[in-house]
Fold this sequence. Notes:
The protein is of the alpha+beta class. It has helices at residues 2-47, 52-61, 74-87, 106-112, 132-152, 212-225, 252-261, 293-302, 323-334, 339-346, 350-356, 375-383, and strands spanning 66-72, 91-95, 123-128, 176-178, 205-210, 230-235, 241-247, 268-273, 286-291, 308-313, 316-322, 363-365.
Amino acid sequence: MPDVTEARHEMEQAERSAAKLAKILKVAARILQKAIKIATGFLDRVFHFSSGAKSYREITKNAVQTGMVDNLSKEDLREIKRYAKKWNMKYAIIKAKDDEVKKVNLLTKALSVFSKEKEEADYCIIYDLKYQEVLTKILKNVVTARVNRQMSKDPALRTDYNKDGVIDEKDLQIESKSNDLKADDLKLNHEYGTLHRIEFKDKNHLVYEISKEDYEKIYLESQVEVQSFSATVVRNLQNEEIVAISVAPKNQQKLMDVFLTHSVEPQSEMVINFDRDKSKIDPEHCYHIEMNNDEFQDFKEKYKETSYNSYKRDDKWNVIINSDSVKKNFEKSTKSKSLEELYKEIQPSKEEVKLDISKENTEVSIDDLDLNEIDVDIELEKEI
């Protein structure tokens, strides 16, 4: 009995210790959470990266009209903050470009303090137009600071602020524009998004074509909710001026939500996909394939690591893909299949295969997609 009593006593002590430790950990977690919140708030104030969506609503709540200044860097924002504080000017910041999430070790982080990097013009501000006169004075000071920074840098580190591919005197200009955008204001070949269309070059992205009138409806909200997108006025196949909106796959749903809110129905949709080598489509050796939406969803999954262009109109998808890519994908998918399985796949349509096998740069249906390049496997039938 004494042993049992002693054991029970030890168990009770262990339980009390565990309960005490749990309380300590809970308190520590609360303190850590509070510290993180304070630190985040402090950094937001220091770097002025507050939530664009939240402050945007504060700005537009009582504003009759709003304006925007784009292609700003962190250094530009610091200058604006310094002068805006004196005039008590309120404004919202939107980060136009999404950063890639990268793992950085402590040594790399420490060394980055001493490294020289280009400024990135990835921000824009939205403000109440009643501050236009004040902002004009502020931007003069921002431009002066930008000129000094640009001229004092190594030429290789100077920033292409307007993203036209050339570093020149145009990069030293900062202009504000009204957010009261009308369909008639949208000019052919002009950009009206937070990013330039060229920034989607060689990157997976989607393109939606909508009317100028529809873009007028979503202009402001798309800047806040989607943030990272380009919008360019181009001509469609019917030679009509429309707005082509380019967006990364991760921001697609945000754009769809904005469309839904304003009852906007895209006239067409495009999906541009690249493989790891950013391979281009070879017009001399490619297939044009037509498919319905369900077939296209299967295609996207199967060819997600392959370069292709696709275009949707009237509920039909037209896909352009290199013939070599189809061959490689087919060979990869058949490596794990037995000869009997391959025979069963090609047997029902082998005559069709023999007819289509040499065709390139022609239109075929999605049903023929896996059968276009089975010339090697047709020989297997003879062996079987």
